[in-house]
What does this fold into?
Amino acid sequence: MVKITDVARRAGVSPSTVSYALSGKRPISEQTRRRVEDAIRELGYRPHAGARALASSRSNVLALVVPLRAGIHVPVVMQFAVSVAVAARRHDHDVLLLTQEEGEEGLRRVADTALVDALILMDVQLRDPRLTLLRSLDRPSVMIGFPHEAAGLTCIDLDFRAAGEACVEHLARFGHRVVALVGSPPEVYVRGTAFAQRVVQGFTEAADRAGLATAVHPCEATPAAARRVAERLLREQPALTGVVVHNEAVLEPLIDAFEQLGLRVPGDLSVTAICPDELAESLRVPVTSIALPAAEVGTRAVELLMAKLAGDQVPEATLLPPRLTQRASTAPRPA
It folds into this structure.
C-alpha cells in the first residue's frame, strides 16, 4: 500500500506538505502542488478516508433518506437513488442510504454524528413532520418534493401539479369530455404525500377549466385492484373515454382490464400516464406519458447540496416542467 511518506519522497517534500496539498489547510506554491499531484498520480496513492475526514472535517458522505413506506413503487424510487449515487461520486462523495422510517429522531441521530455532510430527503409529505428539525440542523439538506410550507428549505421535483394539468389538457384537445384519474395506492394519499396530492390538484383544476366530467380513484398496486377500478369506472362513468394513470404498478394491468371489458385502447379509450419513459414505451400499446426525470432530479439535488456545502446561495425552489410524449395510446374521442 502506498503511504503518504512514499508520495513525499517521490515529490521531494515533507509528509506535512503532502497533507497540506490534500486538505488545503495551508497555502503551498503552485510548483510544489504540481509535484505532489504528479507523485500521487504516478504512485496511485489514495488518502485514507478516515484521515481525510479528520483533515477536512468532512466525511464526504451524503445521507439519502428514502423511507420505503407502504404504497411506494420501489423500482422508481431506486431510479432516483441510483441517480443521486452516481452524481455524488462525480463529486467524490459516497451515499448512505436510509430506508427505514426516519422521522425527526432518526434525522437527528444521523445529523449529530460525523457520518454525513448533508442530507437528501424523499417521500416528502405536504405537512411533513421533519420540517422544523431540517430548518434547525447545522447540515445542509435538499428535499426531493415540496411540502405545503417550503419557505427556508431547498426543494426540487417534477412539477406534478403541471403534469396532472398537461395530461388532462392533452385529452381535452382530442375532444374527450369524461375522464378519470387512476391514482396511487390509498395509503399514499392518507399520508399526504406531496407529489400524489399535487397530481390530483392539477388534474382536477384542468378538468374544471375545460368543463370535463371527472372521477379520481386511488388504486392498490395489484392487477386485481386494477380490474376492480376499471369495472367501477365503467359502471359509474359509462361515457368514459379518457384515463390518466399515476400508478406505475397498475398501468399495464389496467389497460388489460379495460380491454377485457370491451374497450380498445385507443379506439374506445385514450390512456395517458405519469411514469418512466421506459415503462411507457415497453407496453403492448405504447402509452402517451409525462416522464419522471429521475436522473435529472437526482443529479440536480446533489449539485444543490454541493453548492450549499461550498457556502453558495441556491434557489429554494426548483420545479422541472413536465414533458409529455404522445404515443399510440391516445386518439380523438370516438364519435
